[in-house]
Task: structure prediction
Amino acid sequence: MTKLLIIRGIPGSGKSTMARQLVQAGEYDVMVEADFFFMTEAGYKWRQDLLPKAHAWCQHEVYANLLRGKDTIVSNTFITLWQIQPYINFCKRWNIDFSVVEAKGCYQNIHGVPEEKVKNMENLWEKYHG
Result:
């Protein structure tokens, strides 16, 4: 049965690292992150005004991979529960196994998210009880 792993955590918690390791180990076929939307030939070019578009793209990519039968990881901050709910609803609708994990490592914040913003995310964090 096809499965989805939702990895959530603050910047620098190891979401991408965890996802890459699971794909490299062959436990999942593909990983998708909203950050991929911002990758260009010149590197990572994040834009606040494109964030909603990036998340819509991310959802579309995850859903398309799942419907093709690919075991998929979606890795984003997902600070609040409403942000993961569309993925959960999709999985329930299509009878796809899913799990939600929280990355809690301490890695370099590779996208340069300001410390004040990271602290704000920590304060807004909603625990998942699935």
